[in-house]
Amino acid sequence: MTMDPVDQVVADWARQRPDLDASPIAVFGRVRRIADLAAGGLRGYLAPYGLTPGEFDILCNLRRAGRPYRKTPSELAASALVTSGALTGRLDALERDGLIRRRDHRADRRVSYAELTAAGRKLIDRVLEGHLAREEALLASLGEADRKDIERALALLEHAVREAGPER
Fold first, then answer.
1. DSSP single-letter state for residue 168
2. Where is the HTH marR-type domain (predicted)?
3. What fold does the segment set 52-162 form as a domain?
4. 114 — phi, psi (to 5°)?
């Protein structure tokens, strides 16, 4: 196998700073690279549908909620890990496109919901099917055992990073 850009970075550091262990770059550099490539592919896939990845995430979030396909903005912000300002902009765009509607709680006017419209549900069902088919195609060269090993290793890495905290 030829050296890829991540391998090259690790090799360069080994030559330039042999006193340092640059091996973590082999893991984190590869994870970043895969994330960047996947994000670019997702943006390209969603563009013809007029969606951004953030809007796609909200539509998926509402669809996964089950009938009546609604959540409060706070629930959406928590699961999307975005600020309320970023969420508001995404909700505005989705509402403008007729994919969601905002509803007030019947008994408590302080509570509102974002809810999928019929058009939003139809679109997210179609887009999600294509998205999952794309991701499956990207994984097609891996056997089931390799996929499970990667899932397990990534879960362990995610846990270790979360446990280390944001300052690390």
1. -
2. 24-162
3. Arc Repressor Mutant, subunit A (1.10.10)
4. -105, 135
State pTM to two decimals. Answer: 0.85
3-state secondary structure of 103: strand
Backbone phi and psi for residue 101, each to the nearest 5 degrees, phi listed first:
-135, 150
What is the residue whose two structure tokens read 């989705």?
Answer: 94
Query: Whole-angstrom distance between the N-terminal and C-terminal Cα of the chain?
Result: 33
Average confidence (pLDDT) over 32-51: 96
Phi, psi of 113, rounded to the nearest 5 degrees:
-130, 150
AA identity, residue 166: P
How many residues can be counted in the chain?
A: 168
Domain residue ranges in the chain? 1-49, 52-162
**Which secondary structure element, helix H or strand E, spans residue 76, and what is its range?**
helix 73-80
Measured CA angle at 43 (ends 74, 113), to 5 deg: 20
Question: Token pair for residue 20?
Answer: 């340092």
Taking Cα atoms as reference points, which of 42, 54, 66 lies closest to residue 93? 54
Instruction: Report helix angle 73-80 to 84-96, nearest 10.
Output: 110
pLDDT grade, residue 81 (50/70/90)?
A: low
Could you tell me where the beta strands, DSSP code E, fall in 18-143?
Answer: 70-71, 100-104, 112-116
| Residues ≥6 apart with Cβ < 8 Å to 128 | 60, 63
